[in-house]
Design brief:
Elements lengths: L2 H9 L15 H34 L3 H30 L6 H26 L2
Helix pairs in contact: 2-3, 2-4, 3-4
Length: about 130
């Protein structure tokens, strides 16, 4: 029996329910946090996509051996980018309350993609 029902029975007066449960998080704040995170990841992935395309254009000007080696690495970057985009889609499809459990996986994928891009870029440019 809820505490306020018991009070009503004993006093015969209507009493507001007692707050026994913890306050819920503000849904609009959580939604805003989710949207901000999604925008940040979208921007990161768009930037990386452009960088990969630039790297692909640069490889076309390189010698045959370099172009072959770099194109294999670029193909790998494309696959990593697609994986990150798929994970972002999964995050977008989640409820306001459930999206954060997928965040760590997406963060790890984006971090790895950035590292892979840097590695490929530095090998190609010789830096």
């Amino acid at each position: 029996m809820k505490p306020w029902v018991l009070v009503l029975c004993l006093t015969g007066m209507i009493v507001a329910p007692l707050r026994a449960e913890a306050p819920k998080t503000d849904a609009s704040s959580t939604q805003a946090k989710k949207e901000s995170y999604q925008k940040q990841v979208e921007d990161d992935l768009d930037s990386l996509s452009k960088k990969i395309d630039d790297l692909r254009r640069q490889s076309e000007k390189a010698g045959a051996d370099t172009r072959t080696r770099v194109n294999r690495q670029i193909d790998s970057l494309d696959q990593e980018l697609k994986t990150a985009q798929n994970k972002l889609t999964t995050v977008k499809e989640q409820t306001t309350d459930g999206w954060e459990k997928f965040r760590a996986s997406l963060d790890k994928t984006v971090k790895h993609l950035k590292k892979s891009y840097q590695k490929t870029s530095s090998k190609f440019t010789g830096n």
